[in-house]
Amino acid sequence: MLLSLLKFVVRTRFSRPFLIFMAIMFVYYIGISQAIPHQSEGEILGYYGTAIIAFFLAMSLATGGVMILKSDRDYLFTLPLSTRDLSVSIFFSQFMAFGITILLMFGYLYQSFDSPLLLVDLIALAMTFTSLGIVAPTITTRVRLMLSAALALWTLLAFVNFPFSPGSAFYGNLYDGTAILVGLAAVTTGAAFRGLSRIELDMMKNLVRSTSTEIKSPMSYAGKSPIGAIYSMNLSSISLAGRMNMAGTSRYVSRRVKTRWVVTTASILAAAYFVLVVRQGPPQPFAAGSNSLPTSVLVPIILSFFAFFLSQSVITNERVWLSLTSLPPAMYFRHLVASRVASLLVMLAPFAAADATLFALGYGEALGALVVTVAVIPSAFVLEILWAAYVAPIQVKGDDLTMPAQFSLRQMSATLPMVAVLILVSVAVLFPLVALIEGGALIVTSATLTTNAGFWSRVVTRLTESGFI
């Protein structure tokens, strides 16, 4: 019965081309891992690996969801199935979707470290990543965000040689870090299976909680023109909504925060970034000789991830029957994109100020980071919005807190611009001239597409074909 249930759950969640693609990629990465000789890659690999792990663990808890479809509630949960078999099947499908991402991202690196024990760490990390997503919907939004921040900070403590951190195994404390990762995996996996055993009850509690929440500070657009309302909505408060495209599916979360709170938080983080760079060493005129170069590269990469996360939500919450009756489609989308770019620039402004100050103090690598922050990331943000709208649009219709889409190659394609942007950002930070060229090219391309009425006409057709209402 378990095998039949596993097959059913997998087939209802993953398209056949997606499964074939993932199998090919898994075999490819195994081959790559065997081809890389055993050798230590030094501090740089551990630095970036730990930071990326912190990001993904935090995002898994902050934006997690369980792979439960509407058909499961109508059919699967009504069958006389073993709770254990059902929990194992759902967990296995969740692992295939999210946990395997960690193995694909880092599995080929384990041969690069001195100990094969890193393979154990990667498996524990994949189990933790999977389990956090399952546990997340049972926790209130505020608590989930605080725990996500604490988890990221705990992971990043590896940078100050704190041995008992989920990231320390990748940053010089192999045995202590492995013990922490294995223990964390055991705790979160146990919590995930306990949650899956009462998944129907938790779904009802989440539904009641989300529908009974008091509406605070309703926004009014009385007396404003349609264009004025667009800018007022996106600038008076900042939408921290995001669509998380991960391994071929989408997860959507949304929260509007007053602009002053977002700017305050960004300013604190930018100040911490400034202090970290200064403490890492004296000013250097050239990036190649700077001790703070890893930080100057890593922070723009993290900001790029954040911008990509926000870009995916611009179209997902649109109600086209209302939006496109207020203004012509090209005009409406043009101002929608412009207002969201302005909103992003408000969030990036403290980091741009920090980079400008560092450059004035003589930190040469800050120039590339500054150009990336003010030009490359915002223009790439626009292209990511356009790509998501044209290639893989998905509309959130307020069902509940489960995953809204089947895993498919089309949804996975929505992450392709992120890969290109990460490469561009990494190169641009090292070479300011390249950053200027990239930023100029991206600005021209994004502006041309955004002002093209024919492009938006095709987007409207795509939205209609994708079931937007």
Describe the protein's architecture and organization.
- The protein is mostly helical.
- It has two domains: about 1-210, no CATH class; about 225-469, no CATH class.
- It is about 70% helix and about 5% strand.
- It has 20 helices and four strands.
- It has helices spanning about 1-15, 15-35, 40-65, 70-75, 85-105, 115-135, 140-155, 175-195, 200-210, 225-235, 260-280, 295-310, 315, 320-325, 330-360, 365-390, 410-415, 415-430, 430-450, 455-465; strands at about 235-240, 240-245, 250-255, 255-260.
- Strand 2 (about 240-245) and strand 3 (about 250-255) form a beta hairpin.
- Mean pLDDT is about 75; it is low at about 210-215, about 240-250 and about 400-405.
Can you write the helix and strand succession as a string? HHHHHHHHHHEEEEHHHHHHHHHH
What's the overall average pLDDT, rounded? 76
Spatial ordering of strands, largest sheet: 1-4
Q: pLDDT below 50 for ≥5 consecutive residues: which ranges?
A: 211-215, 242-252, 399-405
Judged by helices, strands and strand pairing, the structural class is mainly alpha
Portion in strands: under 5%
In total, how many beta strands?
A: 4
The 3D shape can be described as: globular
Cα separation of the termini: 40 Å
Number of helices: 20
When the domains are counted, the total is 2
The major sheet is characterized as: 2 strands, antiparallel
Supply Rg.
23 Å
